[in-house]
Amino acid sequence: MKKTLILTTALTGFAFAAGAEEITVMSWGGAYAKSQIEGYHKPFTEKTGVKVISVDADNPATPIKAQVEAGNVTIDVVDVEYPDAVRLCDEGLLEEIDPSILPPGADGTPAAEDFLDGAISDCLVTTIVFSTLYGYDSTKFEGDAPSTIADLFDLEKFPGKRGMRKAPKTTLEMALMADGVAPADVYELLETDEGVDRAFAKLDTIKDDVVWWEAGAQPPQLLADGEVVMTTAYNGRLFNAAIGEGQPFVMVYDGQVMDYDGYAIPKGAPNKERALEFLVFATETEQLAEQAKWISYGPARKSSAPFVGLYQDGKTEMGPHMPTSPENLEGALTTDYEFWVDYNTELSERFNAWLAK
To answer: How many other CB atoms are found less than 10 A from the CB of residue 156?
Structure first.
């Protein structure tokens, strides 16, 4: 680790060590990957001359687990959700990251204090706060429009197909909140058989009208194609469709489920030293703010906020579109990653069995 510290400390002055002249970064594709390419990849290459190859996956945790277990790792840096990072780290599939290699914020605040609470784990450095929420096509409703998480499940008041993520995570939480459970009580209830039964009972009420999605790019396309009238989605994907592409989509923040996501390094990464250099660069104050100019995901460093301004269109203020914006936090739930580390396997089996019925 000592050699790594020397290399990454040099990063602040861009005095890079000799070595491989390219790295491969795996992420989620679509508008999110584009924001990373603009915010991290291109500036990193400009500063270092190291080419960054971007590879997409529906959920990068899955192929990374397979690569490491097979001893055939081709990815240097991977973007994963926080619970997946904790699980993969516990299984010994990710490299541990010494937090002392992370530079202070632009205002001098030490990294440990500058990052949001819990954003740095043994194997992950968080880059963004994102949320799963739902949105709707405003052309499909006259008069009253959906405004609460309960409306997502109200087929009588708001008829039409729904899009939902084909996974228990966020889906079960939203079902309970739609059934009247306060965000603060969701995980305590999901730890009980009664709570899980209640969540699935709520999902039963819309099951026949659900179109299930797996990749982040699918929900906006489902709305655009008219296959659904409302759908859950990652907030940044709907933002890109609505603001970036001019689609008539409206986001509903009530009942949003917020989560951390960031960079990790697979065990056995072929270019580990370069990977660490990239990770440190990408998680600096200015770079996190730069990514936030391309997509509405909140930077994981507090010092990044003053650097986040307008969207790439030069007129849209990004602040109000962040899931962490004060006006969007009412009715929000923050993911309990420890819950999903403990219960993901069990609830995934229950969810898949329920789907097959």
So the answer is: 5
pLDDT at 20: 53
**218-259 confidence digits (pLDDT tens):** 999 999 999 999 999 999 999 999 999 999 999 999 999 999
Other beta carbons within 10 Å of 62: 12
Among candidate residues 292, 262, 293, the one with its CA nearest the CA of residue 278:
262
Q: Quick one: 207 exposed, middle or buried, by C-beta within 10 A (0-12, 13-18, 19+)?
A: middle
Strand partners, 26: 55, 78
Tokens of 167: 């996974």
DSSP readout, 162-200?
EEEESSSTTHHHHHHHHTT--GGGHHHHHTSHHHHHHHH
How far, CA to CA in Å, does 213 sit from each of 157, 225, 271, 285, 340?
A: 23, 14, 34, 33, 20
Torsion of CA 78, 81, 87, 91, to 10 degrees: 0
191: phi then psi, degrees, rounded to nearest 5: -80, -5
Query: Tens digits of per-residue pLDDT, 278-326?
Result: 999 999 999 999 999 999 999 999 999 888 889 988 899 998 898 988 7
Torsion sign over Cα 245, 247, 250, 251: negative
List phi, psi (to 5°) of 325. Answer: -60, 135
Residue whose pair of structure tokens reads 């790594």 in the numeric block: 4
Residue ranges of the chain whose pLDDT lies below 50? 1-19
Q: Which pLDDT score is estimated for 325?
A: 85
pLDDT of 59: 93
The CA-based dihedral angle spanning residues 77, 321, 113, 288, taken in that order and rounded to the nearest 10 degrees: 40
84: nearest Cα among 22, 28, 164, 8: 28
- Assess contact for 49 and 23: CB atoms under 8 A: no
Query: Pick from 7, 2, 9: which is nearest to 17 by CA?
Result: 7
What 150-159 contacts at long range (C-beta under 8 Å, 24+ apart), as own/partner pairs, is 150/178, 150/180, 151/252, 152/178, 152/230, 152/232, 152/252, 152/255, 153/178, 153/179, 153/202, 153/205, 153/206, 155/205, 155/206, 155/209, 158/229, 158/230, 159/229
The residue type found at 77 is V
